[in-house]
Amino acid sequence: MWTAESLKFGAFLAPYHPLDADPALQLRRDIDLMEHLDHLGFDEAWMGEHHSTGAEIVPAPDVFIAAAAERTERLRFGTGVMSLPYHHPLVTVDRITQLDLQTRGRLIFGTGPGKIPLDAHMMGIDPAEQRRRQGEALEAILALLRGEVVNMSTDWFTLRDARAQLPTYDPAGIEVATASTISPNGSVLAGTHGLSLLSLAASSPMGFEVLDRNWGVYEKVCAEHGHIADRARWRLVNPIFLAETREEAERAVSRRIGSMAAYVNRQTGENPAWADTPKGIIDQWRNENLGEFGQAVIGTPDEAIARIERLVEKTGGFGTLLVLHVDMASWADTKRSYELFASEVIPHFKNRNRRREASLQYAQDNRELLIGQLVTAITKAHTDYYGATSG
Fold first, then answer.
1. Is a pLDDT exceeding 80 seen at residue 374?
2. Upper half-sphere CA count for residue 241 (Cβ side, 13 Å)
3. Cα–Cα dist 391/382, whole Å
4. What are the backbone dihedrals phi and psi of residue 153, each rounded to the nearest 5 degrees, phi first?
5. pLDDT of 51-68, one tens digit each?
C-alpha cells in the first residue's frame, strides 16, 4: 500500500542555462550540484539530451553522468531522457551497459522520442516518425539488454546477429523508464514493456489534469501484457525554487529568470506583456505556465509541501518527485534552495520527526509530574548534602 513515507526525491535537469554565461562553467556547476544533492541525501538526479536552441547544453547525458558519478556516493542517475531515434540501438545499449557498470548499478535508463524540433530537423528526421522510431528502438534495446541475439531491420537501422557484450551490473537488469507528457502514448509504451513511467508535464495545467487518467491507462496496459503497475516507479516533475520567504525567492531569481521567458518566447515568436518584467514572468510561471515547464513553486518550503500534497491527492500516490532544476539564481541561492527542500520538505513527507514530536508532546502533557519529580530530586539532593554536613 502506498504511503507518503515511501516518497523519494530528486532533481531533473535538461539542463536549462542562460545564454549569457560561460557554458564550461555552467557544466561544472551542474556537476557541483550533483555533489551537493548527494551530500543532502537526495535519491536521484536526471540529465537530458538536447542538441540545439542554446539553453539545454548537454548533448550526451551518459558522458555527464560518468563524470558526476565519480563525485558522488549514493545518488542514482537517470538519462532524462536519451532520445532513441537519434541513435543506433546497439550503440545505445553498449554505452548504457558500460555506464551501468561504471556507476555500479546507479543508473536509470530514461528513454524518449526526442523533444526539440530543431534537433530532428538537423538530423533529417521527420518529427511525425519519432514516436514510431522510439518504439522500434525500444523493442530492440530491451531484447539486447536481456541478452538476446537480435535480428531486426527497419527503414532506419539494421541489427544482424546483434548482441550486447557487456552485462548489466545487477543480474536483474537496469531500470528502464519512458517519458510521458499529456497524451497517453508514453503510458501505453511503458505499460506494454513493463517500464517505469516519467511524467514530465505533471505540473502544467493540461498535464496535471490527465495524471490520474494516464496512470489508469498505464495500469490497464500493464495488466494486458502481464506486468505490475508499481507506483514506486512513477516519477513526477515540477519546477521548484525555495527561500526563507516568498519575497526572498523572488529576489533570488529576478535577475536571470528573463532568460527562461526568452527561451520560450523566441522559439514561438511571441512577445507577451508579462515577459517585460521579472515579476510578470514569476507570476506567469506560478499561476499559468511557462512553455512546457509547468507551474513553478517560487517561494517557501510550505508552498512546496502544499504543491506535492496536491500532486499526491491527484494521483493517489507516486514514487519520486523530481525538482525541475533551472539555472536562474546565484550558486549560493541555488544551494540554499535545495538545502531548504532537504531540511524541511523531505522530512515532512518522510515523517522523520514523528518520534521527536511525540517525545516533546509527552513532556508537555506530563509537565506537572515531571517538573514535580525534578523539584523533589533537587530538594532531596540539597537536604542530603546540607543535612549530612550540618550533623
1. no
2. 26
3. 14
4. -135, 130
5. 999 999 999 999 999 999
Partnered with residue 78 across adjacent β-strands are 46, 108
| DSSP E strand boundaries for 114-256 | 150-153, 158-162, 175-180, 196-199, 234-242
Q: Which residues pair with 240 in a beta bridge?
A: 297
Neighbours of 59 (CB within 10 A): 15
Q: Residue 177 in contact with residue 186, Cβ under 8 Å?
A: no
Residue 117 has pLDDT above 80, yes or no: yes
pLDDT of 43 > 70? The answer is yes
91 closest CA partner among 134, 44, 141, 46: 141
In Å, how far from its chain's centre is CA 231? 15
- Any idea which fold 4-354 has? TIM Barrel (3.20.20)
- For the record, the C-alpha cell of 281 comes out as 514572468
Residue 86 in grid coordinates = 537519434
pLDDT of res. 61 = 98
Compute CA distances 242 → 203, 236, 298, 325, whole Å.
16, 18, 6, 11
Rounded to an integer, what distance in angstroms lies between the CA atom of residue 347 and that of residue 370?
29
Residues paired with residue 10 on neighbouring β-strands, in sequence order: 44, 322
pLDDT at 390: 53
Give residue limits of the domains in the chain.
Answer: 4-354, 357-390
Name the β-bridge partners of 16.
Answer: 56, 326
- 50: cell is 538536447
Separation CA 80–CA 295 (nearest Å):
20
Question: What span, in angstroms and rounded, lies between the C-alpha atoms of 219 and 223?
Answer: 6
Beta bridge partners of residue 109, listed in sequence order = 176
DSSP string, 283-297: HHHHHT-STTS---E
Determine the residue type at 227.
Answer: H
Of all helices (H) and strands (E), which one includes residue 377?
A: helix 367-390
Return the CA Rg of the chain. Answer: 25
Count of residues in the chain:
391
Distance, CA of 21 to CA of 207 (rounded, Å): 32
Segment holding 157, helix H or strand E: none
Measured CA to CA in angstroms, residue 187 lies from 112, 175, 180 at distances of: 12, 16, 6
